[in-house]
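Hello again, I could really use a second opinion on something today. I've been staring at a protein lately and its backbone has me curious. Can you walk me through what the tokens say about the fold? Take your time with it, there's no hurry, and the full record follows here:
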Amino acid sequence: MKNNKLNIKTILAPIITSRDAINKLEKMVKKMPFKTFELDFSDVEFISRSAAHELLVMKEKLAHRLFFKKDIIINNTNFDVSEMIRVVAANRAVPKKIAEKMETKTVSFDEFLKHNLSLDK
């Protein structure tokens, strides 16, 4: 392969359902000499939650390596694939255990303004 654009449908499949598929992709990316990779998701119809999670873990892991860092760019995702990646990324940002412990309180706008105006003094 002469460039750093990887067609995911060709390399893996149009339906990606396992972490193993992403692990295969990671091994391929690690062996290539490029620092930046574009993962082209054209014609990929579906990615499972576990595969999306592994993809984000791989992206983060490669970006934070001490040596031979690699940046991953995800392009051309359809709505379903991008939504799955978004949901998994959001869950990684606020893990379920933390979200369950968070308490929310509904306040009126007037109460909100009153509280915030008193902080300015």
